Amino acid sequence: MPKKSYAEQISQSKLLVEAMKTNGASLPQKLSPDFIQNVETTLQKAIGSNTVQERLKADLKTQTAELDELMKELAKLYAEAKKRIKLDFPQERWKEFGFDDKR
User: Out of 5, 24, 51, 67, which could bridge 31 as a Cys pair, Cβ 3.0 to 4.6 Å?
Assistant: First the structure.
């Protein structure tokens, strides 16, 4: 059985807290106000942490897209510089520039 998403768990926990507040005293084994408060506090912390995580995931996607563009540009510039070096320097010196191609 697949694990529930954080959003599903949070949503279900919200319903649980509200139901415990409303019906907790009428259960055969009553739920203490401290227990209900502990569940609610933990839920609020989970909501805050989930919000931070979602923002970080969005930031990561943006950063990854930026890095991808920069790496494409870098690859283009690297190829251009390498071509220029191969034309201007003898093969014996190519290793100085970080490559030892065979022409």
Answer: 24
How far apart CA 58 and CA 63 sit, in angstroms, is 9
Q: Name residue 33's amino acid.
A: P
Count H helices, E strands: the chain?
Answer: 2, 0
What's phi and psi for 41, nearest 5 deg? -65, -45
Mapped onto helix, strand or coil, the DSSP state of residue 48 is helix
Q: Which pLDDT tens digit goes with each residue over 10-60?
A: 999 999 999 999 987 788 788 888 999 999 999 999 999 999 999 999 999
Between CA 75 and CA 90 the distance in angstroms is 23
What is the pTM for the complete model shown?
0.70
Residue type, 39: V
Q: How far is C-alpha 13 from the chain's CA centre?
A: 23
